[in-house]
Amino acid sequence: MRASTSLVCIVVNLAALAVSLAAFVAGASGVARMTSGAPLARRAAQHASARARTGEEIFRATCTGCHGADGAGAPRSTVGFTNRLPDFTDCNFATREARADWTAIVRDGGPVRGLSRIMPAFRDLLTPEEIQRVISYVRTFCRERSWPRGEFNLPLAQTVEKAFPEDEVVLTSAIEMKGPGSVSNHLIFEKRFGARDQIEVDVPFGFIGRSGHSWSGGLGDVSIVPKHVFFSSLASGTIVSGLAGVILPTGDRTTGLGSGTTAFEASVLAAQLLPARSYLQLQGKVELPTDRSRTNQSVFWGAALGTTVPFSPITRIWSPMLEVTGSRDLIAGAPVAWDLVPQFQISLSALQHVRAGVGVDVPLTEKETRHTQLLFYMLWDTFDGPLFSGWKGWCPGCEH
Ligand code: HEC
Questions:
Q1: What is the pLDDT of residues 321-366, one digit of tens each?
Q2: pTM of the model
Q3: Would the N or C end of the chain have less CB density within 10 A of its end CB?
Q4: Longest C-alpha distance within the chain, in Å?
Q5: Which numeric CATH code is attached to 57-77+84-139?
């Protein structure tokens, strides 16, 4: 009896197991049916709406009303305002700005860079990724690849020159307080031509202290130097340019402001972009006077390592840099003059077209004849805007 009871139990249990197995298989196939049927189509539709929009789709939906489908600016009759609209198909304009600047403008609106408030802020409408995608699309309106990108328009160092071709006016001053003292200035005009060329005219003037507390001052040797960009690649973050020109004997040799001879100068300039908006700028230069009895041939080299840090309010940025420079005359046994130049550059205007640099040139060698100098410069990017416009910007929280 007991045996038969247990047998029944086993049969019942086996049957229950079979039923639950069958139920499991049926259930599983039911799930399979569900995913292959109508619900799958619904999911696909949901997925499509969540699919990341391309930069072009974002631009067409959000920006064409003002900027036009071709990026050249919608007609004035349709936009309802008369303000200037940028032409993104004009490479000369569209390649100058670094991505960080356009990101700030699209995210926080025109006033963040001293531009019109008609350019809206999209931070509540577009995600940071969408802003990057739409900017990448805006970049495609310039079809010529030869233009070096604004990312290479790095902060100017005190000594090493920039590889990027520019439209700029720069006034520099070097003040030496020890010894008889001197103030050396340069007024530099830089004019860009096309994608890769620039001409630079450097007008030095200065004052040199004399014994007996008198000073002599005047014009130095004016130089006229064209610059050409040989290579630039955003992918590798590298730009390489060359300078070659003439230094005219316009300065008075007897006061020490001029060399008294025409000279040729040639430089190789390079910059390498590093992570986190950091960079390395390099220069190697040779100066070859035509009359070597008056001035020696000489070489100069320098490297500037720096980074760009936005600080609150976000319309301003500053760039601390450390420069190491060396120079020597090309005569046997001439010593090398090494210098260390800690410095920083700061943007003064919201448009960032007016900037100032401050530094100290500390001689590391030849200290008997060379003294510490205070270095200053002011620069105005003449392409970006008139000197007195674009100073006032907006930033989150600055209204108060
Ligand atoms: C309501 C009109 C309007 C809309 C919409 C608009 N913009 Fe603008 N945008 C402007 C105006 C006007 C300027 C020029 C501001 C100035 O120069 O003072 C401008 C300037 C810009 C600039 C700066 C160009 C420079 O001078 O360096 C960028 C970049 C830009 N817009 C991108 C966009 C993108 C991307 C979108 C869409 C997500 C967009 N804009 C939508 C009107 C608009």
A1: 999 999 999 999 999 999 999 999 998 888 889 999 999 999 999 9
A2: 0.84
A3: C
A4: 135
A5: 1.10.760.10
